[in-house]
Amino acid sequence: MTIKPPVLIVEDSKAVTMLLKSFLDKLEYSNIHSCDNGYAAIKEFKKLVKAQTPPIVLLDFMLPDMDCRSVLTQILDVQPNARVVLETATEKDDEGVKELIRLGVYQYLEKPIRFESLKNVFETIENEDFFFIKESEQLKMLENAEEEVKTKVIDRVDFILNSSKQVSLKFIEQMIGFSDETIRLHLSELEREGKIVNLGEKKEVACKKCNSVKTTQLFSCPSCNSPHFRLGKLIEHYNCGNVSEERTYENDKCPSCNKEIKALGVDYRILPNHYICNNCSDAFSELSSEYLCLKCENKFSLEEVNWQSSCNYKLAAI
User: Which of 66, 196, 240, 267 has the fewest CB atoms below 10 angstroms from its CB?
Assistant: First the structure.
């Protein structure tokens, strides 16, 4: 019997947490941890990783104390290959959700959460665990059971293609763990059969140390380098020049001069899509960023990127 990994639920709603625990119990997951805020979640995640029991994370999109992106990047900083499942009522096509997926969210779970949806997500994770084989074991299997390995490689390629909107040859090879003619031949066959479309060459960010294209971006405050930040709106009061977060203007009164703001564009203006650092309270429109290699855990800047190019594929439209 396969031992199932622990699950960390990061959710501020007690009702949703209870529902998830009930669903996970049906899926025979017994080692379940829960937190109702981002700070506690990061602390618990580090504790589990240190105990060599890295969890699957169910991460709520809206948290009371921390921006969801900040929580995600800090989790990936601790464990680059962490499986983080985003749970949200926001549409998958929303730019904020898309950005989190690009940053490294493993799967997307739409609210209200249904048992079948959760079951499908966890079955995907279990299938991936089944197909993942260490490189040394793969080489040994190639020597001793070539046909069996080819079948598993083909199954793994199909799984990766079906789990991605677009994926490069370089990424597929690195997900499987080695480069093999079986992969290229199978992709060529799928292309001839009209099951996938070759989108041409794709240039990807790669780690200068190990050449892996399995990377993600980490974001932080440009003033103090803290990864603890949140997305918010700022209000600039023309009368006194105060600029502070929207929530500081209680009853439409400026927190600095206590005068009421009335007409947008006359008394004040709104500065949307700004980030507020939870550590130093600075506000900024752009974050500092660096890349994290999910293979060797090397951190590097855009200037240190080693670009890699290979064919890019997507599933053909049905």
Answer: 240
3-state secondary structure 74-98: HHHHHCCCCCEEEEECCCCCCHHHH
Whether residues 234 and 125 share a domain: the answer is no
Could you read off the pLDDT of 180-210 as tens digits, one per residue? 788 899 999 999 999 999 999 999 999 988 8
Q: Nearest 5 degrees, angle CA 72-CA 96-CA 109?
A: 65
Q: How far is CA 259 from CA 197, 251, 252, in A?
A: 60, 10, 8
At 167-178, the pLDDT tens digits run 899 988 888 777
CA 195 from chain center: how many Å?
Answer: 27
In total, how many domains does the chain have? Answer: 3
Residues ≥6 apart with Cβ < 8 Å to 314 = 164, 165, 166, 167, 196, 197, 199
Please report which helix (H) or strand (E) contains residue 118, including its range. Answer: helix 115-131
The reply to whether 2 falls in a domain is: no
